[in-house]
Amino acid sequence: MVVSPPRPHPAKIKLARAASVTALAIVLLAATGAHSVTFGSYQTSQANLESTRDELSKTSEALASTTVSLEATKTLLESTRKSLAAEQAGRANAEQRVVQLQSRVLAQDNCIQVLKDDVDELQRIRGMMSTNFNRTSTGSAWANAMNARNLAVNAALSDYYDAYKAAFDSFYGSANSWIALGNAQIKLAVDQLGIMNAQIDNINGATAQIDAALRAFSQRLTSSYTTCGI
Questions:
Q1: Is the dihedral of CA 41, 46, 52, 54 positive or negative?
Q2: Which residues neighbour 152 within 8 Å (Cβ) at sequence distance 6 or greater?
Q3: Phi/psi zone of residue 139: left (φ > 0), alpha (ψ -120 to 50 degrees), beta?
Q4: What is the pLDDT of residues 21-66, one digit of tens each?
Q5: How many domains does the chain divide into?
Q6: First to last CA, the chain
Q7: Domain with 211 in it
């Protein structure tokens, strides 16, 4: 005789079904929640990826722009360096030119000074020549002595002629008087000739000094030409 297993109580069956339904609901809820979490995370990651792509794109554009700007800056820097080098070279050339000009100015100053001294010396020599020329000019001691000598000689000739006429007429006393007057004029002429000779000595001495000054000036002028680069 087969014995059937005891059947569960209807209340227990209801509880078991309720528990199963509850468990299934929890499982579905869990599965749905997990799916929701996973989808949300995906959406967040996708948004982050898009944001990162945007940032990357912006960064790439900024990098490209910066690269172009950097190249332009490098070009400007190189140009500036070349300009600076040119300016430095120009400044060096200018400074060298200044030194050359200063040297030239100094040389020109020296030239001007020696030429001024030469002019002063020429004026001094000219003064000596003028003074020496005036020793024989009208009103000078030599000119006055020469005039007095000429007058005395002419007077002596006249007196001797008168003495000759008196002697020819046998007026010997008168002839002797005229001869004495003539002799006095001759003495006066000789004295004036002495004055003239003394002046000639002065003229000759001054001429020698002038000649020496001119020779010295000629040598000096050669040195001046060297100083002035002539």
A1: negative
A2: 185, 186, 188, 189, 192
A3: left
A4: 455 555 444 544 544 445 555 566 676 677 667 766 776 776 777 7
A5: 1
A6: 162
A7: 135-228
